Amino acid sequence: MYRRLLELVLVCISLAQWGWTQEVRIWNRTVQVHGFVSQGFVYTNQNNWLTMNTTAGSGAMTEMGLNVSSQITDKFRVGAQVYDRNLGQLGQWHPSLDWAVADYRFTSWLGIRAGKVKTTLGLYNDSQDVDFLRVFALLPQSVYPTDLRDATIAHSGGDIYGNFTLRHRLGELSYTAYAGYRNDSIYSGYPYLISQWGTHLRGLGGLQYGADLRWNTPLRGLLVGASRMNQDISGKGTGFVRLFDPAAGIGPYYEFSKANWTNQFYGQYGIRRLQIDAEYRRYLRDQVILNGTSENITDVRGWYVSGTYRISKRWKVGSYYSRYTVTDAFGGLLATFTPDQTDTSRPENHLYDTAVTAAVDLNRFWDVKVEGHFMNGFANAMYPDGFYPQQNRQGFKPNTNALVIKTGFHF
Amino acid sequence: METSMRPSIQPLAIAVFVLFAALCALAGDVKIIANPSVKADSISVGELRRVFLLQCKALNDGSPVVPALQKSGPAHDAFFRQYFGRDYEEVWTYYQGLVFTGKASIPKQLGSDDEVVEYVAHTKGAIGYISPTSSTDGVKSLVVLPDEGKRERTLVKRVEPEYPDTLKRLHIGGIVRLRVTISPKGSVDSVELLGGNPILAENAIKAVRQWIYSPGASQSKVEVTLSF
């Protein structure tokens, strides 16, 4: 693993020698090449976190991407990015096509993108993998759970997008509407969570469509917006023929959505070196599981407020408070085994996280971040948020403090 | 006493003057230039911001534009501070976000004012920024205007209407109300009679057609009232 990482870093450094914009000429066209790689180390004092053995300290936190793009005409652009990550038990070094788009912009108020497109949802969904874009080593997990990135990150389909300048000094509106197919990696959080019950998904995905509207208000630096996403998700694989009974043997498994939607509201204010973000996300998932025998309604509500400040050209600091609650209701066969989880004051149904970060850009290509997390709760529900029983077989403790050190290289 | 003070006041005055001059220079130390193919002679702050944030590929008049950045330097810092209200590092992060999510490519980055002028001069639709003292050979300078609504078109040249002697003698007067359509360059495109004394209207319209206003980002309309 480390040899592979070292090789990639060397390749990145070589590519960075090309210059500031990393441009090459191919077939008489300018092609931009950009990439990033980041490596993290996480230590927690209590529960193991993010599918890593963090109580002993874990460096199984690597992600990387490499993209090429070219402006074919003044209105037409193409590009693609390959992405790979290893986060504890997630990703497991299986590279994926992160995005591959053909983008035609007719005018400022109308453009189309087609291919595999990053999904616009809130402030950071589409850029959540790109560590160096933000001060924090980990985005607030209440709204951007890194173990569930596949659930929202991209769709194979298309977007229409554009922006309008409003009359009467009312600012600008930007919109994106999209539809496509979401295809999760089987090495993502949800398949890993349900593998503890003997269910192994071979495929998870489905229709994803929605829209985002954001308003750059007349107050310079103030942005507010809202996103909506609907999904129709099904999963197939294998599981125990009889619930929780391995002796009964293995058979086909399927599950599908009855309802699956996300609403997100957000605001951002930036002035000079200060930036303040706030977001709220509600995610509701009504899933028919266990071959149609049971139903699980998961209702997730998360929000955070964050502030970042660039002290100097190289040094940045930031902090956020992130709050996540989850309730679960059950129907069918599963209801006879499992009571509904509705009390969000219990640590298994919430995760409150206060984070503080200091980040330094060692040079234009290389940064280091040190981040502390002070968490209450572990939100171990039917839908995960960082804490998994597989790594916490001794049971969960209510509080977890974490130290995250991350370094990233990009060009 | 008075004579002994003179030598010390003079350097102080010079220092204050130099500081003032430097501050004045800092206040407006960036010039916006464009390829001659760009039809507009002026650009609003909002339009400039949209172009450099890659939110539009053409100006309001339809001219396609391609932004060009500098890598560093005083003009570079002044440009982002003056027109974006943010340090360049924040805008650079914005560009990187677009690149790594597949939503745009980073604009051309150039090393000096001379390189920007060279690139802008030879690239159709190119628009860039340089220090005000730099040469602008082969490119055109764009006037940056406050955003629409934050400014009024000011009258630069006024031609008074002729008040015929006959009408004056007969005490035939009154007002004429007109709606004036002003081109982005400031000339009067058309004049529409809204009301008033029709006998005086012809001369009023004839005079107003010769008026010149300050340039604007787009065509605009104003109502004027002339008294006779």
- Write down how many β-strands of chain B occur, each being a DSSP E stretch of 2 or more residues: 11
Number of discrete helical segments of chain B: 7
Report the mean per-residue pLDDT of chain A as an integer.
92
Identify the CATH architecture of chain A: Beta Barrel
Strand content of chain A: over 45%
- Most extensive contact: A-B, 48 and 32 residues
The major pleated sheet of chain B works out as:
6 strands, mixed
CA radius of gyration of chain A: 22 Å
The major beta sheet of chain A can be summarized as: 16 strands, antiparallel, barrel
CATH architecture of the largest domain in chain B: 3-Layer(aba) Sandwich
Shape of chain A: globular
What number of domains of chain A? 1
In oligomeric terms, what are we looking at? heterodimer
Question: What do you see in this structure?
Answer:
The complex is a heterodimer of chains A (411) and B (228). Chain A is mostly beta strands. Chain A has a single domain (112-123, 131-410), classed as Porin, CATH 2.40.160. Chain A has 2 helices and 17 strands. Chain A has a 16-stranded antiparallel beta barrel. In chain A, β11 (245-271) and β12 form a beta hairpin. In chain A, 43% of the residues are buried. Chain B has 2 domains: 29-145, Periplasmic binding protein-like II (D-Maltodextrin-Binding Protein, domain 2, 3-Layer(aba) Sandwich); 155-227, 2-Layer Sandwich (TolA/TonB C-terminal domain). Chain B is built from 7 helices and 11 strands. Chain B has a 6-stranded mixed beta sheet with strand order 2-6-1-5-3-4, sandwiched between helices. Chain B has a 3-stranded antiparallel beta sheet with strand order 9-8-11. The interface between A and B is large, with 48 and 32 residues.
Strand and helix layout:
The complex is a heterodimer of chains A (411) and B (228).
Chain A: H1 2-16, E1 23-26, E2 29-44, E3 58-71, E4 76-87, E5 96-107, E6 110-118, E7 154-165, E8 172-183, H2 189-194, E9 200-216, E10 222-242, E11 245-271, E12 274-289, E13 294-310, E14 315-332, E15 350-361, E16 366-376, E17 399-410
Chain B: H1 2-27, E1 31-34, E2 42-44, H2 45-52, E3 66-70, H3 74-84, H4 88-100, E4 108-110, H5 113-122, E5 126-130, E6 140-145, E7 155-157, H6 165-169, E8 175-182, E9 188-196, H7 198-208, E10 212-213, E11 220-227
Parallel strand pairs in B: 2-6, 3-4, 3-5
Antiparallel strand pairs in B: 1-5, 1-6, 7-10, 8-9, 8-11
